[in-house]
Amino acid sequence: QVQLVESGGGLVQAGGSLGLSCVASRSILSFDVMGWYRQAPGKQRELVATITSGGTTNYADSVKGRFTISGDNAKSTVYLQMNSLKPEDTAVYYCNGKSLSPYRSKWGQGTQVTVSS
Fold first, then answer.
1. Whether 107 contacts 5, CB under 8 Å
2. Rounded to an integer, what distance in angstroms lies between the CA atom of residue 105 and that of residue 52?
3. Which residues contact residue 34 at a Cβ distance below 8 angstroms, ignoring those fewer than 6 apart?
4. Given its phi and psi angles, is residue 42 left (phi above 0), alpha (psi -120 to 50 degrees) or beta?
5. Among 14, 25, 30, 97, which one has the highest count of C-beta atoms within 10 angstroms of its own C-beta?
6. Using one digit for the tens of pLDDT, what is the confidence trace for 15-68?
7. For 85, which DSSP code?
8. Can you tell me the distance from the alpha carbon of 99 to that of 117, in angstroms, rounded to the nearest whole number?
9. pLDDT by residue (tens digit) across 65-85?
10. Measured distance between the N- and C-terminal CA atoms of the chain, rounded to whole angstroms
11. How far apart are CA 21 and CA 79, in angstroms?
12. Across the chain, where does the E strand assignment appear?
């Protein structure tokens, strides 16, 4: 069974940067879409950014221009570079891999990102 393992979370001051990594136990090209989601306390999980197997990216409006999603097929890893962080970016960040036919969705365990003001 495929596993997704996130790393790179931590505590950072507002305006700072953090990079998250998500390592898959099989090629990320086996997923149609990989993405990062986040869930703040008391809120629903929300999409942050996605990247398709063809390299097309998509971002939530709240992170456009500050976050960058990328993938390294050779390392089976998807990254999320987060710059100009704000306190409202504080959340548990989850990696997700989706296959569309048949539909399958796999989540990582999450990594905490805390941005202090």
1. no
2. 14
3. 22, 24, 28, 50, 51, 71, 78, 95, 96, 97, 98
4. left
5. 97
6. 999 999 999 999 998 899 999 999 999 999 999 999 999 999 999 999 999 999
7. -
8. 38
9. 999 999 999 999 999 999 999
10. 40
11. 5
12. 4-7, 10-13, 18-24, 33-39, 46-52, 57-59, 67-72, 77-82, 91-100, 103-107, 111-116
Count of positions (residues) in the chain: 117
Residue appearing with tokens 């905490």: 112
Place of tokens 């790393």: 7
Name the residue type at position 4: L
